[in-house]
Structures are given as C-alpha cells and as structure tokens.
Amino acid sequence: MCRSIKTLRPPVLPDEATEEEVRAAALQYVRKVSGFRAPAAHNREVFDRAVDVIAEATAELLAGLEVRGAPRVDR
C-alpha cells in the first residue's frame, strides 16, 4: 500500500520493532488513507487519534504474531 511503511516483524527486522517504528508506520498509513501529509487545525484531533489507534493495533498485532522458525519473545 504505502512504500514507506516497512515490515516490522522478524526476520525482516532482526530485533523487536521500537515504539518509534510502530508510530511512524501508523502515521504513514493515516497520511496515505486521509490524503493529508499534515492535517488542517480542524482535523488535527481526529488525525492524531487515528495514528494512536493504529499504532496500538499494530503493537498488538506484532505482539501476537508467531513467526515460524523465529524464537518467540515473552512480554
């Protein structure tokens, strides 16, 4: 979908994705879907909330994935 969103799971990333990487991916997704690089003031709240929700969902997804052949890290 968006070329600047990178895969955030092993073995593509050797280590666990950082909070900054997860948030950057969420921001790129919201920018792509909304069509705004930076929203106008009247859209800032909903834009920022969408980034937060997507970052949370991404972190949950990554925490729950089991990649075959990769050791599972307990959290």
Structure description:
This is DUF2277 domain-containing protein. InterPro entries: DUF2277. Pfam families: DUF2277 (PF10041). Helix 1 packs across helix 2. This protein has helices at 19-34, 44-64. It is mainly alpha-helical. It is elongated, with a radius of gyration of 14 Å. 49% of the residues lie in helices and 0% in strands. The chain has a domain at 19-64. The protein starts with 18 loop residues before the first helix and ends in an 11-residue tail after the last helix. The protein has 2 helices and no strands.
Strand content: under 5%
The tally of helices reads 2
From the alpha carbons, calculate the radius of gyration and give it in angstroms.
Answer: 14 Å
Shape: elongated
Helices and strands: which structural class?
Answer: mainly alpha
The residue fraction in helices comes out at 40-55%
Please give the number of β-strands: 0
| Mean pLDDT across every amino acid position | 87
Unreliable runs: none
**What separation lies between the terminal Cα atoms?**
30 Å
What is the chain-wise order of helices and strands? HH
What profile does the largest beta sheet have?
A: none
